[in-house]
Amino acid sequence: MTGSRKAARRLFKRLSQLLARNRIRKILRSTVRRMSIEPMEERRVLATFVVNSTLDTIAVDGQLTLREALTAANTNATSGDAGAGSAGLDTIQFSIGVGAATIAPSSALPLIVEAIAIDGTTQPGYAGSPLIQLDGSGAGPVANGLRLGLGSSSSVINGLAVNRFGAEGISIGSSTNTISNNFIGTDPTGTFDLGNTGNGIYVSPGSNSNTIKNNLGPV
Ligand SMILES: [Ca+2]
Ligand SMILES: [Ca+2]
Questions:
Q1: Which parts of 80-194 fold into alpha helices (H)?
Q2: For every one of its 219 residues, what pLDDT tens digit does the chain have, with 9 covering 90 and above?
Q3: Contact, 50 vs 64, CB < 8 A?
Q4: Are 92 and 120 in contact (CB under 8 A)?
Q5: Whose CA is closest to 180, among 200, 199, 156?
């Protein structure tokens, strides 16, 4: 082999090594990039609050109240025993012992300003009639039971008894909500008239495409 061929082979070998090293470097770089980006990807986890108390307080006391759940869902920050809600839709379920339970707010519950799904049918023992009763008799003369404000579109209120509020039972000020399987203005068995002073369900002008189905009111 001549000297120049040897030099050419050496050069070729060196170039191959450099190319291989470059390729490895590129692979390493992209792997590191992937590893550092993946944990930062936003994963939207919807919060679910399980109300376990009939109290109306906001306090860290092991009792997760409806007021705490509504506040945390609205603000996406913690409230008493309720962890932070997530941006947008959060869910409120119930597990207050088994069977009928009455929540009697001592003032108006928070205006709902983000999508929420409140599902009374999750209360253990539910068999088609509401077990969770929102009793507004102590909430003051201008309190609505539940009020869906601006920003709350696509909410669900399902399977509650809502009675004796000074204003409306459920007031809707947003769109594409579903109000279903509630007893509004009656006791939880649907037997006694416990009307709200205002409308059972009030839909504000400009609130569109709401689904209101399978609710019961006083005859
Ligand atoms: Ca609490
Ligand atoms: Ca929220």
A1: none
A2: 556 777 777 776 776 776 677 776 776 676 556 555 555 445 567 899 999 999 999 999 999 999 999 999 999 999 999 999 999 899 999 999 999 999 999 999 999 999 999 999 999 999 999 999 999 999 999 999 999 999 999 999 999 999 999 999 999 999 999 999 999 999 999 999 999 999 999 999 999 999 999 999 987
A3: yes
A4: no
A5: 156
Going from the Cα of 109 to the center of ligand 2, the distance in angstroms, rounded, reads: 16
Task: Identify the nearest ligand to the CA of 91 by its number.
Answer: 2
Residue 90 CA, ligand 2 centroid: distance in Å? 5
Quick one: which ligand is closest to 86's CA? 2
Return the domain boundaries, the chain: 1-36, 42-219
- Find the 149 Cα to ligand 2 centroid distance in Å: 13
Residues whose CB falls within 8 Å of the CB of residue 31, separated by 6 or more in sequence, listed in order = none
Cα(183) to ligand 2 centroid in Å equals 26
CA of 110 to the centre of ligand 1 (A): 16
pTM for the model: 0.80
How many angstroms does the Cα of residue 200 sit away from the middle of ligand 1? 29
- Between CA 43 and CA 33 the distance in angstroms is 19
Cα–ligand 1 centroid distance for 83 (angstroms)? 11
Eight-state DSSP code of residue 96: S
